[in-house]
């Protein structure tokens, strides 16, 4: 993707919860939960398919009151793309470069605004539910399970309660 292209945030298959200073995004297709810090969230919201990277830089600076480099916006776009939060995959602008090299490019002044996306795989709700299901009074198939709280369905004698 070059500067004239216009990234598009993905919205289908996502559950989005706006929080103070961050955005929580649950991807129903991959069962991954992502926490976007304020910088990453601001860039993600700006990926509307109408704004170029240069437009996103200007919008970011206007909304944050902070001057940022284009490389900072590219870092956010790279992270959004690698986490599947853009409609189309974007080739990393920083491919083959170490994190240290990228941070040098962005510059020390921007380090406080580094985009961060923390992700984790969430258990499938169907499996979490069925692993705790048993028929009360039935000794068959009642064993404590690994997920938290599932062991409370079985009595000490292995009878479902």
Characterize this entry briefly.
This protein has 5 helices and 4 strands, in the order βββααααβα.
Number of domains in the coordinates?
2
Number of DSSP strands?
4
The Rg value, from CA coordinates, equals: 22 Å
- Poorly predicted runs are 126-132, 143-151
Overall structural class, as computed from helix and strand content, comes to alpha+beta
Spatial separation of the terminal alpha carbons: 58 Å
Q: What overall form do the CA principal axes indicate?
A: globular
What is the N-to-C order of secondary-structure elements (H for helix, E for strand)?
EEEHHHHEH
Number of helices: 5
Mean pLDDT: 78
Percent of residues in helical segments?
25-40%
The biggest sheet amounts to: 4 strands, antiparallel
Side-by-side strand order of the widest sheet: 1-2-3-4
Percent strand equals 5-15%
Task: Tell me what you see in this structure.
- With 161 residues, the chain is an alpha+beta fold.
- It has two domains: 108 residues; 31 residues, no CATH class.
- 30% of the residues lie in helices and 14% in strands.
- A hairpin with a 4-residue loop joins strand 2 and strand 3.
- Helix 1 packs across helix 3.
């Amino acid at each position: 993707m070059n500067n004239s292209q216009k990234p598009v945030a993905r919205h289908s298959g996502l559950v989005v919860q706006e929080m103070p200073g961050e955005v929580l995004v649950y991807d129903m297709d991959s069962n991954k939960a992502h926490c976007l810090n304020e910088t990453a969230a601001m860039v993600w919201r700006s990926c509307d398919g109408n704004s170029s990277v240069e437009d996103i830089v200007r919008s970011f600076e206007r909304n944050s009151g902070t001057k940022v480099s284009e490389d900072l916006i590219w870092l956010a776009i790279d992270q959004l793309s690698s986490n599947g939060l853009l409609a189309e995959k974007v080739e990393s602008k920083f491919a083959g470069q170490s994190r240290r090299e990228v941070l040098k490019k962005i510059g020390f002044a921007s380090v406080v605004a580094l985009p961060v996306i923390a992700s984790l795989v969430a258990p499938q709700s169907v499996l979490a539910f069925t692993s705790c299901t048993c028929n009360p009074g039935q000794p068959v198939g009642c064993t404590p399970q690994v997920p938290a709280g599932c062991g409370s369905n079985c009595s000490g004698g292995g009878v479902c309660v």
